[in-house]
Amino acid sequence: MSNIIQLLPDVVANQIAAGEVIQRPASALKELMENAIDAGSSIIRVVVREAGKALIQVIDNGCGMSETDARMSFERYATSKITKAEDLYAIRTMGFRGEALASIAAISQVELKTRQLSDETGIQLIVEGNELMSKHPVACNQGTSISVKNLFFNVPARRNFLKSNAAEMRYIIEEFQRIALAHPSVEFSLHHNDTEVFNLKNGNFRQRIAGVFGLSYNERLVPVNEETTLINISGYVGKPSFAKKIRGEQYFFVNQRFVKDPYLNHAVANAFEDLLPPGCYPSYFIFLDIDPAKIDINIHPTKTEIKFEDDKSVYAILRASVKRALGKFNISPTLDFEQETTFNLPLMKLTEIPVPPKIQINPLYNPFKTESEIRFPSQVRNSPALENTKGQNWSSLYAGLKDVEFNGQQTTQSKLNIPEGVETESWINDTIMFQLASKYIILSRHEKLLVVDQVAAYERVIYEKNISALQNQPVVSQQLVFPQTMEFNQTEFSVFMEIKTELHAIGFDISEFGKQTLVVHGIPSQLGTDDIKQTLEKIAEQYLYHQKLVKPDKQENVARSAAIRLAARYARPLHVIEMKKLVFDLFSTRQPEISLSGKPVFFYLTPEEIYAKFN
Ligand code: ADP
Ligand code: MG
């Protein structure tokens, strides 16, 4: 029998290895940024095009490479970071496996320019699919600039596997944020298709967190500090009142390397116990510094897990230090923790148009009339539930409402202008309803007592309206007299860019206004002008939450996220007309029984069940 085993050619071996190290543009970016950090850079600039699919460029001012090293750097297992086995127990650098550049070069077109401080000229290399295409001396700044073009150009299957630009850009931002957070003393910038996404000056950790997530984070943070012989812990946890429903801002950095660790996470969550509303996750930004010999260094580049030699002690120290930090915060909640003076900037940007305070006037109010005679206040008449009924065949249901004089108890019996022939309309119109605890609507139907959860009902109604708006009939948004400019954090902003069209369809008339900033021209009719930013933030949060949870399609997700947020505004007293409209709308939806979170929207109580209570 002839022998059939052969050594794979380097190019093939590198392509296979690349599959493990580089899954998407963000993984290439991570490797390049880590190399720049390892090179001792104090300024790192990142430029991407088409979410990194067309170009990822990292420019640093680090140590640079000699001509020979520049050529060597593309070889597999070529590294300057370790030389012998023992070095593995003292790793402080981000990389050490010597795989990244070889992997990246195997699946893209790379241009490298680099110069060491001691050299007069630099060197430029062009490598395509691991093949050296050209090598020239070049005039360049000290440091290294690597451009990775057309990632996966020679592996179409991988290229086709990539997600939309918006989704890939989210991965890029995630990696960028992790590295930027881990190295607050380094200046970073990120540009995407000529737009500046981040520009982070060097500073302390608190300033970096605020730079990445927004100035508002400054007041949300509680410092954590603990020095022990085993491990040093430093950083911040978010105040419990700012906890989110999505596992968002949770960052552990072990020796400045981002790690995800369920065990450490448990320690922090445990320290927060009882302080968080149910279903909420704490945010944290915690550095753990430990002797590298006490952790498992066999860290695969794509993996973010870590193993501690003495994990029980690490757990206990972490938990205790977070608990202590929270305790200190709880005991003295007004204490201002080490305010950095640079944060005392005016929060309003120059571009922001101040919103004039709203004064609500009821033009019909007559102080000489007794209460029962007062007409239906304009505020309630214009309330969201009564608007935006355009194009629906029952829109005339409440036509003529403005002319109806309401008179205390008789309100529910007032005959409204109802189209003929629909069963629900007459029963609703003739039914007496009342509200309990600003939460439930109670009425009798089919000889039973019907109890409706009003927020859940609004969720259903708004959701179906959103779906129809998205599928065929965009709603008309309520235009603002003063368009509002508002800044968001990068994650939120990228969500809005991803779902801009969908938001438009359901009534948010928004446009991009430079870096992380939106101008809001119009809003859905259910929304008040005072609540726009918070609502958009919550929609982004819900959107990401649903995306992680069930991966619904985009339209479904937007319809759902916006409905949940907009419905939450209705946990308030309702006018009987609003109740009637809500109950009517609810029973006109396709699935009135179940709320968006899967709970019942209403239930019936039968006379038998009531009888049983008395007997
Ligand atoms: P590793 O980082 O694991 O050593 P890489 O493939 O990422 O492996 O890089 C190979 C080598 O190239 C590094 O060890 C380093 O010497 C050199 N190198 C890569 N990027 C840079 C950079 N931006 N500045 C200076 N040297 C670099
Ligand atoms: Mg590396």
Low-confidence stretches: 331-354, 365-424
Distance between the termini: 92 Å
Number of E-type strands: 20
The biggest sheet, with number of strands, parallel, antiparallel or mixed sense and barrel status, is: 8 strands, mixed
As a percent range, the share of strand residues is 15-25%
- Helix count equals 18
Principal-axis shape equals elongated
Radius of gyration: 30 Å
**Overall pLDDT level:** 81
Helix content bin: 25-40%
Going across the biggest sheet, name each strand in turn. 5-4-3-6-2-1-7-8
In this entry the ligands are: adenosine-5'-diphosphate, magnesium ion
Give me the secondary-structure category: alpha+beta
Question: Can you describe this structure?
Answer:
There is one protein chain. With 615 residues, this protein is α+β, with helices and mostly antiparallel strands. Helices cover 33% and strands 20% of the residues. Strand 15 (440-445) and strand 16 form a beta hairpin.
